[in-house]
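pasting for the record
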Amino acid sequence: MLEITLEKTQRSSLRIQGYDYTQPGAYFVTILVNKRRSILGEVEAGYIKLSSIGEIVLSSWLEIPDHFPNVELGAFMIMPNHMHGIILINESSDEVRATHASPLPGLTNESPRGPKPGSLGAIIGSFKSAVSKRYHLMTNNQNVTLWQRNYYEHIIRDEKDLQSITDYILTNPQNWQEDEEFTQAR
């Protein structure tokens, strides 16, 4: 008889070890559609034409500051199989921040799971969850994973970095044919 032991796999983090992603700053993020499927829209003549799913992504992205009052959005672009955006986390005057799925302190002996409330990870997780929920309602299919696990982030260090990233984001549709995500989507 073959005995198989299933061990919990440890996923490596893409985040900088020890960095506090709740602290004020500007962050560039890239979020990929699962399996890089081009379902968010099409690039036509250097402009993005959003699909109905892409429209859900747009409205959910614009709602982020409604759920995180200390957050502002910078430049962003939704592409056929990914999106780029700049998230600015400002000082928070409200010290009570929560992630809706986190247990109340003291109710379990386990460490809290998931991202730290108010962090970049919590913001991205909330966004991806909101889009997925709306997508599943629209398609009436709960079995489709919409997003690739995790996301890419870059801490924007200065104005020059901010301008360079903003230019990259805004010209992404014009450069789609040369984009790494275009070739991987094929």
